[in-house]
Every structure is written in C-alpha cells, then in structure tokens.
C-alpha cells in the first residue's frame, strides 16, 4: 500500500467523541472518551463547538480567564537568538526571516496571531497553522512566495496521523517506533453545516515540518496532542452557570421563597403521588424556581428558605470561580473575581501579577516560540525567543533587571580592582561561575601605580622614592633605572594666573 493510501486511511474507522456539554457525569457511559483513537489516527479529545458554546460564550468566568491570558500573551514580540556552547541564549536580533510573524496575513498583526493561538489552546488544547501563498503552495514550498501568509487550521478538523516501521498498514499510537508522519486537515465540504464532515470533503495532508503545532498542556491519555485547561473543571463551569441562572430566576420571579408542601391526612396514596408528579412538573428545577404556588385539598405550605443569604450564595459561587481561575493559571485578583478582590492591595496585586507572568505567560511564550519556528525561515543555530523589553505588563520586571544589573556592575568593579581580567570579570558576573577567573589574574592591584619594586611617588614633590631592595627594586643610593628616571621628573606646579613658568 502506498504512503498516500495509508495516510488517507480508506479502510480504517475513526471515532468521534460526543459533544462536550452533553456528557454525563458518569464517564462509564462513554468508555472511549479517554482513548479516542483507532489505528494510526488520533482525533481531538473534546468537542470544540461544545467548549465554545457551552463555556466560552456562556460563562462569564471562563471568558474573563481566557481574556486575561489572551491579552497578556498577545503582547509578545519575537526575535532571533543563538545559543552559546553553555546552552544560554545570546543577544536578540531581528532578521528578515521572521517578518512573517509581524504581518501573518493581510491586515493582521502578531497580537492577533498570538490571540488565536491562546484561544485555540484554551478551548481545544491545540493550535495548528501552516503557510500558503497566492500560487497555492503550502508549507515550506510557500516560503518567500508572493502573498505568503499564515493560515490557522481549526483544531477540531485536524487529525494527527502516526506511522510505524513495525506495522505500516495500521500502526499503534503507542508503538515505541511510532511517530507523527502527517497532519490531516478535514474542513467540511461546501454546502454542509459547519462542524459536520461529509463524505465529499477534500482532505489536506501536511508533513510535520509544514505545520505549527502548539499544545502547551499535554493530554495524559494521548501521545502527541494537547488538552484544554477546561477539561478538569467541566463540573465547576456547569455549577457556576447553574448558580448564575439560579440567581437570575430569583430576581425574575420576584424573589419568592422556596416552599415545602404538606398534604391533608385524608389524601390517599395514589392522589398524593399524582399531586407530587404534578408538583414536580410545574415547580421542580431551576427553570421553575420561585413560581407562585396554588394549592387545594387541605395542603399547607412551609417556608424552607427566604433569601440567597441563607445559602451563603456569595461564598458558594465565589469558591467555584476561584477553582476555575486556578485551572486557567490566572490569579483571581488579576481576573477581578470576588474572592481575589476581597484581599486586593497594591502589594497583593504586584505579587499576583508576578506569579501570573512567571508561572503562566513566560512558559507559554517559550513553548510558542519553538512551535512557530516551523513557519519562518531561520538558520540552523538560530531560535525564536520573546523580546519582552517593551511589555508594560512586565514593567516591574525591568526594575528588577536594573537592580540585578547594578549588582553585576558592582561585582565586575570589585574583580577588576582586585586585578582580574575585565573580560573574565564580565563572564563571572553573567554566569555566576568563579571558575572563569582561573588563570586570569594580572598580578597587579589597581592601587599599584608603579610595577613592583619601583617605589612610590612623593605626594608633595612628585618624585619617586627609592624602591625596596627586597622587592627587586633599585637600592637606596644606587643609580636609578631608566624606568625610574622616566617617572622621577617632578610634576609641574600650576602658577598664579593659570600659566606655567
């Protein structure tokens, strides 16, 4: 079988998981959710439309957390650096090979590209992109072509294809020799409903080096794909939406208290069951909450709760919001959630901002830079790194960098004053490795104005005093050496009026 026929998988089945928001809490009903794979195909685990419609567009907390990540993540600019022999990055510079990132498509910006990356990663766990040009060339063939641009591949239409030398016909995804051999892009056919893949679709096969695959959170049940941070907190999102709806119903229906109904003792069992069924149908559930009760037949009503304060509503909903923010990697005070604002001070906000930048945004930038290298033209030793010098969100980090630079300058000054080579002193200040000083001492101290054994200057006359014979200098009363003669001439003294006589 040819490689193309193996990749298209005409004889294989592929599993599609049920929509995200329709999943029941009992995962035993969906045994394929944690391992949606067949043969050498690995599909995305969660329903993209379900996350978009069920979380991003209908949960204020989820939207706020994604927006906070997106705004901070989109502030980055990328530059090129080369790593030294010690593995440390060198100086940043801008080359023509990365200009595509600044204008990824017509009227597009690097901020829009990074926003799309963050949005897809939060909702689907994966971001896929490739390059095309006006001649229809794709991937590396489009490098430098007319109208070259970056094209985002919708993540739920991408399938990772895995190949293996042991079983080229139907490789197992966890074979130790298996690797990613292609990405298959399956957009819906023309005329079909969005998100529904028909049999008439035209699949696009892309080699791994032609695709930018960014997946910062790995899916533990899959080998090569990523996982959305929303996956572990599905129940938290559902609970927060239910609490919000509960609160809305409370105000829409006049804030009526919840009631308990007691029936007359003469009511028979069948009548009671019929009454209970009718009551549940008309009054049970969030949608029927707080409706006015009309009772007959001797039924009595008892108030169970009068307002939301008895439920400690703020604390209950606030705890759920905090867990959602924790999963997103955004401190509640940054998002503006209630539990974060209760302890909000300038000091706390600064600490939260530092935690958000150092533990969430910077690692994402580092991984995104590596993923984007497949879309630009770089020389072999070059790599992409984020230039964060002009990012306002990290302005306090620049103050810390200035303090570190001042400390490094003090270390360099001390080492140079101690007689060490200036270049070696700079290396020590940067690497914090004193081994760089080995063999780099000049043998002199900065306070020595003359070589050893030549004596000292007389501060009044400017003449050189006789050297110490023990230091190898000219003994007292002997003839001065040529070096001593050169420096023993008295310094001219300034005369009144500014002229030297």
TrEMBL record:
Judging by the UniProt lineage, the source's domain of life is: Bacteria
Task: Give the compositionally biased regions (Low complexity).
Answer: 469-490
Pfam families in the record, alphabetically? Phage_portal (PF04860)
Annotated segments matching region Disordered: 453-501
InterPro entries in the cross-refs: Phage/GTA_portal
What is the protein named? Phage portal protein
The species this protein belongs to is Saccharopolyspora oryzae
């Amino acid at each position: 079988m040819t490689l193309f026929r193996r990749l298209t998988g005409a004889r294989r089945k592929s599993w599609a998981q049920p929509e995200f928001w329709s999943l029941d809490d009992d995962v035993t009903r969906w045994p394929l959710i944690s391992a949606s794979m067949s043969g050498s195909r690995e599909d995305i685990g969660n329903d993209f439309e379900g996350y978009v419609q069920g979380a991003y567009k209908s949960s204020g907390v989820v939207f706020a957390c994604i927006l906070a990540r997106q705004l901070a993540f989109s502030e980055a600019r990328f530059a090129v650096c080369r790593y030294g022999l010690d593995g440390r990055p060198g100086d940043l510079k801008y080359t023509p090979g990365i200009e595509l990132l600044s204008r990824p498509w017509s009227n597009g910006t690097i901020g829009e590209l990074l926003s799309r990356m963050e949005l897809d990663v939060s909702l689907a766990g994966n971001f896929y992109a490739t390059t095309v040009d006006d001649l229809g060339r794709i991937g590396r063939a489009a490098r430098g072509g007319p109208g070259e641009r970056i094209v985002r591949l919708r993540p739920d239409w991408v399938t990772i294809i895995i190949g293996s030398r042991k079983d080229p016909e139907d490789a197992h995804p966890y074979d130790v020799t298996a690797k990613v051999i292609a990405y298959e892009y399956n957009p819906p056919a023309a005329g079909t409903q969005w998100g529904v893949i028909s049999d008439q679709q035209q699949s696009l096969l892309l080699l791994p080096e032609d695709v930018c695959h960014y997946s910062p959170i790995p899916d533990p049940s899959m080998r090569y794909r990523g996982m959305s941070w929303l996956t572990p907190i599905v129940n938290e999102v559902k609970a927060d939406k239910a609490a919000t709806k509960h609160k809305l119903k409370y105000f829409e229906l006049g804030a009526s208290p919840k009631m308990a109904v007691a029936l007359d003792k003469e009511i028979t069992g069948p009548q009671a069951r019929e009454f209970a069924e009718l009551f549940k149908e008309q009054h049970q559930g969030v949608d029927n909450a707080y409706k006015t009760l009309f009772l007959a037949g001797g039924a009595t009503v008892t108030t169970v709760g009068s307002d939301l304060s008895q439920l400690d509503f703020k604390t209950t909903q606030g705890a759920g919001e905090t867990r959602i923010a924790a999963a997103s990697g955004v401190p509640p005070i940054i998002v503006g959630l209630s539990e974060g604002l209760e302890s909000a001070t300038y000091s706390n906000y600064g600490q939260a901002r530092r935690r958000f930048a150092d533990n969430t945004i910077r690692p994402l930038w580092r991984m995104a830079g590596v993923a984007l290298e497949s879309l630009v033209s770089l020389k072999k030793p070059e790599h992409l790194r984020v230039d964060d010098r002009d990012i306002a969100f990290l302005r306090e980090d620049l103050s810390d960098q200035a303090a570190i630079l001042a400390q490094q300058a003090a270390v360099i000054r001390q080492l140079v004053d101690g007689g060490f080579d200036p270049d070696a002193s700079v290396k020590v200040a940067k690497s914090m490795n004193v081994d760089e000083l080995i063999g780099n001492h000049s043998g002199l101290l900065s306070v020595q104005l003359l070589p050893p054994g030549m004596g000292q200057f007389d501060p009044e006359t400017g003449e050189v005093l006789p050297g110490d014979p023990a230091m190898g200098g000219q003994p007292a009363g002997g003839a001065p050496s040529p070096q001593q003669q050169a420096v023993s001439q008295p310094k001219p003294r300034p005369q009144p009026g500014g002229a030297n006589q």
